[in-house]
Amino acid sequence: MKYMMFVCTDTEPDTDRTDEPDIEVWVAVNDARGRRLDGNVLAPVTAATTVRVREGELLVSDGPFAETKEVIVGYDLLECADLDEAIEVARTHPMARAGRIELRPFGHLG
């Protein structure tokens, strides 16, 4: 099953710095196991563009649409047997401690 893993900042990171995981090790391990299919860091929110159409009019604005302190800073596309395995992969990502991870399975277009 494929999961999109959104890597996000958080206003309340873990303050325990013991045994902090290394992102390069995390990537290498999950690539080798075939669980990480793709992933990357995103440009800062200052590079974001929001596109909307309202009543037929195109509305384009700089920056993210949501006014929030937490932002998506990267993503990873995972292939896992089930949600439990995806949670285990996310748990070991460095940003699970420094930020937060959102897992979302891919849906089906009907």
TrEMBL record:
Domain YCII-related: residue ranges: 44-105
Family: Belongs to the YciI family.
The protein, known as: YciI family protein
Organism of origin: Phytohabitans kaempferiae
Lineage of the organism: Bacteria, Bacillati, Actinomycetota, Actinomycetes, Micromonosporales
